[in-house]
Amino acid sequence: MNKMIAACIALLFLTLLLALPASAAEFELVADWVGVLSDDEYWELNDLAQEISERYQCEISVLVIDDMDEDDAYEFARYVFEEHDYGYGKDKSGLMLFISMAERDCALVAHGYGNTAFTDHGKDVLLDRVLLPLLAKDNYYAAFLAYFSKATEFLEMAKNGAPFDVDTDEVYQQEVAKGGFWGKLAIVIFVPLAIAGLVCFVFLRQMKTAVPQRTADHYIPDGGFVLTQRSDMFLFRTETRTTIEEKKSGGTTTDSGGYSGTKRKF
Amino acid sequence: MATQVTNYQCPSCTGPLHFGSSSGKLECAYCGTAFEVAVIEQLYADKEQAAAAAGTDPQWDLDMAGDEWSTEEAAHMRAYSCPSCGAQLICDDTTVATSCPYCNNPTVVPGQFAGMLRPDYVIPFRMDKEAAKAALKQHYKGKKFLPKSFSSDNHIEELKGIYVPFWLFDGASTADIRYRGTINHSHTEGNQRVTVTEHYHVARSGSASFEKVPVDGSTKMPDAHMDAIEPYDYSALVPFSSAYLPGFMADKYDVEADTCCQRANERIRASTRSAIAATVTGYASVTPESEAITINNGDIKYALLPVWMLNTKWNGRDFLFAMNGQTGRLIGDLPVDWRKFFVWFAGISVPLMLLLGIILF
Predict the structure, then answer these.
(1) Model's pTM, two decimal places?
(2) In chain A, whose CA is at the least distance from the CA of B176?
């Protein structure tokens, strides 16, 4: 909660600093508060965002800030989206790319129709395949251009009734098929070899019966073994955590406020 | 070098007596009469006593033993005259019972025990020659990699019933062993699997007693073969009498007990370790950290235990089998037909590959 309050204060400070009113109408769709874009790039991207948003009635925006005081990137972006009236129309449809330069954090937040067009898998692809490779090289203009291009592609797919998701992502499907193929091939080859080896090993052992005795168990009389001390003392406890890899089932997971999103470091 | 020999003769017809493994009596091969071992022992004791009183010990001229043999060779050989057919025979210095190759007369060479410990016990043969042959045929059955020609072409070259000298070690051990044990608990929290590992210091102490751990005292007998035909049923142990020997070969020990005790100690130590380890239960993993096992040696007894040794030859190679003369347990390594091995390997793996390929692809 303290972080949220700090984030509010930080944002308020930034807002006042830029002498901008806290209203969505006053925010550009591409808001570069740090200056990673040149003026020409800035206006070009804003025009592009405006055009896409109008065409698909879904706001595609970018917000770049200097510092969010170590707050969570997704929570911060969600707060800005909600409090500063982002989103198109009544259902506040939109997708926001949020970047905090100090932490080198980025996040995507979707709402309304944005949840339909930008599924969980779609947002992962936008970040991992499109944005992160360019952001990592501090190539912001190219990253934002690619972001708008891919977002347009996803919006078009959603408009045609088949949003970009695990089942419509050819790259993902190929990876799954490729992984599945090699896994199956390994089973087909190695399981029979292991079974045949085990059976033959058992038969082979039957051929060698002249083996030395290592123990003298036969010669312990009944009651000949006595346990005189038995102690089990607890020493300490260790804990290991492993992430369970879940198979992607597709779709979009939204929170109680109807927002969905994801975050990364670049 | 010639020495006095004794063969037990039938009191009825003077034919040679041999120990019958099925009847447990001394049987005459000619008139078929069977005698209790104790009866014959008493009869021969009386005879020896009478002969001693009459001073009728035969006087051998040792100078006539021949001087072609070197001293070292002579030290390991014994010559004797077969009392049945008169043939002059030579055996090695560890043979205490054998049979004449000319008349097949079973003979005990009592002089061979001179200067050695007299056996404390003997387990009489319970399995006969035919049982040994049948057990060998049974041993071949069900062996998938046995060359087909092995069982059909090879023949038993030699089949001997031998009383093998064994040292029987009594002893006790005390052990103090420490382990590190772990117990794992797993549960899921969100998308994470949490594994909690509890570490324990496990301490166990105990003692074990051992009775009559056998170690063969003959260098002629392969240790692996003698170990593998164990165990013997010691309830059939009887005090030693040479009356059990006729009809079988018998060796005397040529490895001293203090040399053999090392093997007995190794086996006792291993059994103690495994008995203690068996009490450490309930852990996901157990790692030994320290171990102190002390062995207190007890009595050592000397016994002759019955073994059938079977030699076969196949493709120029010798194969040795041993059968426990009491329980009938037969062991011996067999040759492997590697062509059969690969046929079996491919015969299992290839169809399985095809089947799995059809199912999975």
Answers:
(1) 0.63
(2) A229
